[in-house]
Amino acid sequence: MFRRIALLGLGIAAASATFARAGDLKVGDPAPAFALQGSDGKTHALADYKGKSGVVLAWYPKAFTPGCTKECQSFAGAGESLKGLKVAYFTASVDEADYNKKFAESLNADYPILSDPSKDVAKAYGVVHEGRAVPERWTFYIDKQGVIKGIDKNINVAKAAEDVAAKVKDLKLAD
Fold first, then answer.
1. What is the domain count for the chain?
2. For residue 79, what pLDDT band results from cuts at 50, 70 and 90?
3. What is the average pLDDT score of the chain?
4. Any catalytic annotation for residue 68?
5. Which of 69, 86, 105, 126 is deepest in the core (most CB within 10 A)?
6. What is the CATH number of the domain that holds 89?
7. Number of helices and strands (H, E) in the chain?
8. Model pTM greater than 0.90?
9. Where are the alpha helices (DSSP H) in the chain?
């Protein structure tokens, strides 16, 4: 009996260590790979941009909620300034693809909103973790080589896209 409890404890400790590592991504780390369905019906993969352009991945908690709506509206409204930077940018949640498609349509979004209903990618980025079923509102800045160059954990939803454009310029992700 004691042996089973000890083994169970080791399993829990190993799982906890995995969650801790995923949540500890930092600047300079390789970005976790992803291939997620977008609201445009296409699958978008980090590997598609390797050697071509930087990538911005802005996680948000839940479609059709006030803060997330403001954040995604910001991206939809500032599409031209971001497109001019020649960087791929996405917002992402763990909502189902059909739900995010409706959300994107409601915003007239001119960029893909990504869906991760399995939460596998969200866990790899550390935005979903023990005690947190929906993503943290964090934005990751990834260079052409797939390396994380910035992580923003303090998002102003009303001017999220404006802040992203400034950070992309500061990090020289579009060069």
1. 1
2. low
3. 87
4. yes
5. 126
6. 3.40.30.10
7. 6, 7
8. no
9. 2-23, 66-77, 79-83, 97-107, 120-124, 160-171
